[in-house]
Every structure is written in structure tokens, then in C-alpha cells.
Amino acid sequence: MSKIFNRLLHLDWMVFSIVVTLSILGILTIYSATRIPEYTVQGLFLPEGPGLKFFERQIIWLILGITVFFGILFVDYQWLKRLSLLFYVISVLLLVIVLVAGKKIMGASRWIDLGLFSFQPTDIFKVAFLITLAQYLHDLRTRLTAGVIFKIFLYFVILPVILILKQPDLGSAAIIFLAFLCILLLYGAESRFLKMAIIVSLISLPFLWPVFWEGLKDYQKKRIQAFLSEDIDPMGIGYHIKQSKIAIGSGGFFGKGYLRGTQGPLKFLPEKHTDFIFAVFTEEWGFFGAVIVLSLYLLYMLRGFDTARKARDDFGRILALGIVVLTGLYVFINIGMTLGLTPVVGIPLPFMSYGGSALLSNFIMAGILTNIRMRRFEIFH
Amino acid sequence: MFEQRDSALKVMVFRRMRIAEVIALIISTILLLRLFQLCVIERETYTRLAEANRQRIIPIEPQRGIIYDRNGVPLVKNLPYFVAQLSPEYTSEGQIQEIADLLKIPKEEILEKIKNRRSEIEPITIKEGLSFEEVARIEARHSDYPGLSVSTTFIRRYLYGSIGAHLIGYLGRITKEQWEFLRQEGVPQDAFVGQWGVEKVYDDLLRGRYGKKIVEVDALGNEVRLLQVVPPEKGQDITLSIDIEVQKAMEEAYQGRAGAFVAIDPNTGEVLALGSLPSFDPNRFSRGADPDYWRQLSQDPWHPFINRAFQAQYPPGSVFKIVVAIAGLEEGIIKPSTTYTCSGGIPFGNRFFRCWKKEGHGTVNLKRAIVESCDVYFYEVGRILGIDRIAEYARRLGLGQPSGIKLVSERKGIVPSTEWKIKTLGQPWYPGETLSAAIGQSYVSATLVQLARMIGAVANGGYLKELRLLRKTEEINSPQSMVQEISINISQETLNLIRDALKGVVNEPGGTGGAARLQGIYVGGKTGTAQVISKAIETHKLAERERDHAWFVAFAPVENPQIAMTVFVEHGGQGGSVAAPIARAGLESFFRIKKMAIPDHQGD
User: Which site in A113, B223, B280, B395 is 20 to 30 Å from A51, CA atoms measured?
Assistant: First the structure.
């Protein structure tokens, strides 16, 4: 008991407070975004359907997430090493299954439906990927030359990324690939590799672009075009950006006040409770609220970097870096998207967006992060 | 195991982590600045856009003011009318086809209207005059097509049809220029506004003020909540100076011929009747225009869209002799007793100027010359006066200048003079042309309203009155109206002589205007027959379009004039036999006299 008590003393309450605060803000915003406005004039509104409401489901997932978070703390993260390969194989298999038997929503099969709830295999894969990559890099005895990096890419990245692209989920695939590059760069890839990567991509871009472009689905092309010019498709994807900017801009400094936003509940803003939740939040809480949320995410990242520095071993260090990088990319690209700075790639905002498996995987990652920090003084078995 | 590895790697990883932290900070700062830009700097813009998003403004049409005649008889009424409106931003491409099928209109028509819309926020009208069944059908499908709605408005019904149509006018869809001007007052882009006649001139009074309903809508166009209602204000009713019975009697007296008439109260300047024929039925294009009818009217060789009372000018013929007679008396060239002998014409220069009566009038004094409309007498007087003195009196009597009637596109006629001819034609004035001008031919031309004002001034003792379309009592309230009249500066003696002569035209044996005679009321008048082509051919042998124009000006009762009028029949033939009976019909109606048989009279 005293051991557990001792560990709780070393527990990083800061990470926990941040992610719980963000999750609660998320649930409040989901409630606001999906509330049914008073349809007093004509009473025409299609409710969400029977069963639990979005915010109620998210509360359940949050409770589950917190439970898992503490569950993770009881086991030394070193155990993850032993399970990583199994974990990885299962998650890749799930990516295959979702393509075959996934639930199709708006033309994309990203969900596996288990009746009671559905989840995204991509969320599970993200965690497995980080663990496996950390273990591989940790075990690696050679320097990270371009050749080695390419080998890792072939082993761990190319297959799942193609599977995810098949769903299709361009956003997640791009982020996983980006995270992979960032982790390697952080973890000692030779600077020659960096230079080479930049030169190769600059040279190959004009040749690869048409290939890449032709391979895109129409809606993916539209998103890129809309990002480059809002006017191309004002009622389509450009509409998302425009409505998101309207929601954020009309929030002003202190916001319109909780439950006073109109862009979400009146459905001007699509994906209001998922990908564009930051816009709904800012409409109601203003610049002020947005700065607080942004600060919380930044604090989470800095805490993650700090954990990586203090980790007692390389595995923990790489894992912590991976979690920070992946979460950071999601946060920056998602918020950038709602602000009209990055292209619209359908990715959620960690902890805040509606989505059970995403919330759970984020809590798992936060748990691992806390675990690494908690055990920084412990000696190896 | 870290301890055993290259410590250089650790140093490098830590350094790169530091760089990553800085990059995270920089990205956060960029996001922060962008947030600041949107939320603080551009807040106004986005707040407005958010409001525009959720608010839909639905204009509420006011009831248009009713138009009454001088006796309080309504000339128009408003009937409820349903139109289908579409908000394209809440309608998908596929729905347009379905809506087109629902309303049984071609899809292309809807797409065309969407393309041509002027306002991005207002709905567009896609079908007019819905039946109750169609209204029910649209309401039933409201949840399927949130962009489609029924708007209740009014249609103008003109109770007298084509009677007085030129004067009362009609409504038409607002033009782009009109809308640019009126949009601040909340007039919607496809509103109907007055486009002709009184409906146009007094549109500001009649229109009323548009109200609006502001509702909160969701992104699908469903109305969520009523935010604000500004009720419309009914347009002002107006009472015209027109007597619809006189108007009707005169239009009917034309029996299908083309022409125009103007009757005024010489004491007040109020217009009692004003018509132009052929006319049109404004009910057939007041709303939901009937394109075939429109085409038929615009291709009609008799041009029903021209208001002949003031948008056209004609040679006044012998009616102009009143001007020459006044000029002669005032200039002292003739006295009432001055006589000339008419033997059917006079030679002048190398031409022979005919009198309309080939056998001649014999020796006539001024009164007989007017009563029998002897051309030779006026050739003689005109020759002595000269064209410039004739022109001076013509202008004094209101010719050659706009009468100022408050209707659009008034023409001002021509009063020729030596100066005028040099200026406009670059030619000198030939003395022979003075003779033609003296009997209202040559270049002389006038509009009906000018001649009505002129005969009004003769009747009322010398005042050109400002012409009014509204009853005096009401017009005083409107800002631009000040009671106005211009003295023509003609001696009462002269006017008495002229009035007496004009009384003779109608009431004495040999008078050319006998067809306008009334029982119990003395009518004064002057006939005119204006040549359209200057050949002496028997009238009945000429093609209809080459026949003379028939004129008659009149006022009554002579002792105390209550009405003055001009009657014109285009290519009608002789004034005395064609125009005078129409004047009589109007006078009978004005004095409410039962029709009586009066023998036809011959003569100019």
C-alpha cells in the first residue's frame, strides 16, 4: 500500500487536471452545439434519434477514460514493450477489418460497430504505433541513417498508412506519417537526412503532385482547393471554413456566453460537435476562452517534453515524445483548420471533440505519459 | 540502457527537443495572433455575418391606397393574391426540379430568375397568382422544401377596366433603377410599383410603407423563432379630380376611334376627365403579365401606349383661330366690326390659299368669321400680324411650353416664329407660311392639355391654371402644391368678344359647332379640322391614316364656365361632325342631362 501511496505522491496531477478540464469543456461545448433550439415557429427539427444524447455518451466515455488512465498507472510502462508487437498486429488487423466490415458514414468506413458503441480502429492504431516505434528505436543499435529510416518506414508505416488512406481518412494518415517523421527527427535522425528529405521532396513534388492529385477523391480535392481559395466552393468545403471563421470572429473578446452561440445549434457550422468544436467553443467563450484552451494544450505539450527529458530510459523518452508530437499535431492542425490557416482535413481536437475511441486513446496516452513521469526515479528490474 | 549509449546522442536529442518546444511556442503564437485578428480586429464583420446567417427578413407588403374619383367612387380595389417565393440558398439543385414539377412551371424559368436576382438576401418570386389548391400543396410540403414559401400580397383590380386607364395607370414590376432608389425604404426587389399614370405619379403616397418580419432560421432554412415584426403602413387613399362618369361618357362616345380628350374645371385647374384612345385593360397586365396581350398592344399600329392627351402634339387647325383673333384685337389690327370678303380663297405669292368653303363666306365680320370658321378672314388678319406677333400671343396663351401636368413625358408643342425657323430648320420664314399658321396649319402644333388650358383661360377671364389631378383639398397637403395661375394679360373686352363668338359657334345658325349644343345651357366652342396632307381631296376618298384630324374645344356654361375641354379625334375628319358630338356627350354627362336628339351639322 505504501508503494502505491508513494506513487500517487509522485503522480503528475498537472497532466490529469489539464486533460480532465479540456474534456469537461468539450462536453459542455458538445451539449451547447447539439442542443435543440426552440423551434417555436414551425417545430421542424429532426432530433438526434432515440437513446443517449451526444454529451451523455461523451460523459460515459470520459468516466471510462479516467478509469483507464488510473488503471495504466498501476502497471510499469515497461510491460508495454512485451505486448507491443501483439498490440501492433491486432491494431493493423482491425484496420483491415474496418475496410471489410466497417460501418459506412458519409462514404467513409472508419468505424467498427459493436452494437452498444462503435470505435475507430485508427485511434487504437495510433497508440500501438507509438509504442512499437518507441520499442524499435530503443532496441536499435545503429545510427539513424536515411537507409535505416526507410527500412522503418517499410516495416511499420507504409501498410497501415495505405489502409487508413483506403478508408479514406486522409487527415489521420497524414498526421501519422508526419508524426513518424517528427519523432525520427527528434530522436536523432542525422541532419543529413533532414536536408535530404527536404531536397528530395522539393525535387519530386512537381512530379509526384499530379500522381497524388489524381489519387485523391473529389471531396479531398475540393478541400485543398477550398483551402487555397474560399470562393471556389462557397456552399461546399469553403462553406465550412467560412462558417467556422464566422463562429470564431463573432465570439469577440469574451464570447457570446455559454449556450448563446448560434452557429452550431442552427447548423450553419457542419461537424460542430466533432471537428469544428473549437469554433463553437470560441463563439461562446471568445478570444479569452480560446487563449485558455490553447494554453492548456501548450502546457500539456511542454509537460510532455519535460517528461521525455526526465524519463528514466530511452523507451519512455521516445514514447513520451511520440505522444507529445502526435497530440500536438492534432491540436495545431485542427485549430489551424478552424481558423482557416490549414486545409480542412477531418480530424478531431484531442479531448474536446465528440468521439469515444478518440477520447479513450487520448486518455490512454495521457496515462502512459503520467506513468513515465511517475516512475522516473525507479530502478530497473 | 541509456547510460551505456552514446551520450552525444542524448545531447542531440535534448537540443532537438528544445527546438521542438520553441516551434510549438511559435505555432501557438501564430494561432493566437490569428484568433486575435478574427475575434478582436475583424469582430464586427463576423458578427454581422453571423446575424445575416440566422436572420431572414421577410417583407410584408402594405395595402396600396385606394384611388377615388371626385365624387368618392372607388376606381380600384385590392384583392388578396398569393405568390410562391423561393430562397435559393436553402434549396438544392435537385429540389428545384421537384419544385418546378410541383408548381408546373419550367425549371429553366426558376434558374433564370435565380441568375437575375438583385438581392442576395431576399427570396425571389417564382410563380404568381397561386390557386388555393396550389397554396395548400406548397404549405403541405414545407418541411421538404424549407426554401419555398407562399407570400400573401394584393393585386390591383381596376374597376372600370380600360376607362381612364391612361390616366389611372397601372402597376408593374419595379425596375432595377427604381429599386436602387427605393430599397432603403424596404421595398423588395420584385415589388410592384406604379409604372404609368396616377399610379406612378402618386406612387409615394399610394405605396405605403413596407413592413417586415425578421425570423431566426437555421442553416436548412427552417424558421426557428420570430425575432421582430414591423407592421406595414397602409398607403394613403387619394381622391382624383376626375369625374369617372364624364370620363366614361366621353370614351364611349369615341365608338372605337382613336383620339384624346381633356376636360378641366377652368376655375380651379382640376382635371375632370382625361383620356386617350385606343386604351388598354390594365387588369390584364397588372400582375402576372399576359405576354400575348402585351405584344398585341405594342404592335398595334394605333399605338395604345401613347397618351395622346399630352405625349403627342398635333396641328390645332382652326382652333388656333382663337389665338389669331385675340392677337388681332389686342394689337388693334381688327375691331369686331372689321370685315373681309371671302370668295373661297385668296391668292398670295404664287399660291392660292383656299377657304374650307369653296363657294366662300361672303363678307364676314369677326364674329361671323369665328362662327363659320372662315379661313380667308384669318389669312388676312394673320398676314397683317405677321408670324412673330402670332407666336407671342400663342405663347401667352400657354402654347409651345409644357402645361406642367403631373404626368410623365409631356410634349411642349411648337409655336413657330422667324427665330424658331432659323434655329431649328436653318431657313428663313416665308410670308406664305404665316397664312397657313394663322389657321393652325404649317408648323403649328399643340397638345390637348395646352389647348384645354387655353380655352380654360378664355372661359375664366384670362388665367392659365395649374392643372391638378387631385381634389384641391387634398393636394394642399402635399408639399409641392401652391395654388398657381398665370395671367395671360388679355383685356376683358377682348375675352368677352371671343366668348360671345364661341357661343355663336355652337348656338347660332351657320355655326360649325352646332353638334355640341345643349338644351338649357349655353356652350361655347370652336371646331378644328387639321389637314394631315395638304391636298384638296374629298375626305371619304382618303385612306383612314390620311384623313384630317378633328378638333373641338368647348366651355360651358358661357356665363359662368364650370368646364372647359379639348376633344381630338385622330384622322377623324371634320371637327364639327366628329369631335363636337363627343364634347356634347361629355358635357351632358357633366351636367347630368339626358341625351337628346340634335341634328348633325356640317362645316369645319
Answer: B223
